[in-house]
Amino acid sequence: TKGTKEKTMAEVNFELYNNQLVQQLVGASDANLRLIEKILNVEISSFGNQINIKGSQDAVDQAKTAIDLLYGKVSKGIEIGEQEVKAAVRMSEEGPEKIDGQNLNDIVLKTKKRHIYPRSATQAKYIQEMMKNELVFGLGPAGTGKTYLAMAMAITAFKKQEVERIILTRPAIEAGEKLGFLPGDLQSKVDPYLRPLYDALYQIMGAETFLKNMEKGLIEVAPLAYMRGRTLDNAYIILDEAQNTTPAQMKMFLTRIGFGSKVIVTGDSTQKDLPQSTVSGLDVASKVLQKIEGIEFCKLTSRDVVRHPLVQKIVKAYENYEAKEQSGGKRNNRGRGSRRQQ
To answer: What number of other Cβ atoms are within 10 A of residue 9's Cβ?
Structure first.
């Protein structure tokens, strides 16, 4: 039809050199290639080490980049499945295979239990910022991997003896006076609020290694209140759920940073549990610290959600709803203002 931009059709043939790796890449009955075909609306065929892709120029380029990324993964011993294929396609949307001059397949965090790697270009950028800077804010909705990747970075640094200990903390605002009547000591009261941190550590390190290091005091998981009055040297420190800090708590935490330490602050400004009238310490820090050298803010979005595909849709739906509500509220305020002037 008139006015419709015609898509340029393209075809590309290329060869991958290791036959065994190619078999791992394509999957049983070429399942991984079929998934790329479905997502990008291209045709892919493989004959031995030869791969052929047909489709629109943009889709062919993206499919080629995704396959190159997957080939890099299997070359590093990473098993390829549905999630890895979807991650490669997601990363290929950005075009090139490099971010800040670094090959995306080189951004891999090796822990005892698994290889952890970015599943979106923004996650890759986030890992790079954590490598380069002493203080990084990882901001974004649930499921974007902001805390998980920070923990993987902490464990990697600990294994390499770049830091002497790991400290994980989060504000347990519901664990204060409201729970004072419950039986048990403070630790048993705050443990439910720290449970997600324990779970991630178990998954990355293994329960036995985690418990052994915790007994030695080399890994500490504690509510934010425990940080007051301390100076934290030679440590990898992660503050999770930072949107639930007050400005005073955030300032207290950030001034605990000692020599040889690295700090990652993670949070989602759209999910505050603070009383309605209380300003979030994360919101204040985002304004106050934006232009300080050595501090980076990395913003992840619904596009970076790596949980169940439904989570990505839910996060996006809420983002759209909240944006609509905000714009509607602004219009109503302007209308009330103009009526008052009349």
So the answer is: 11
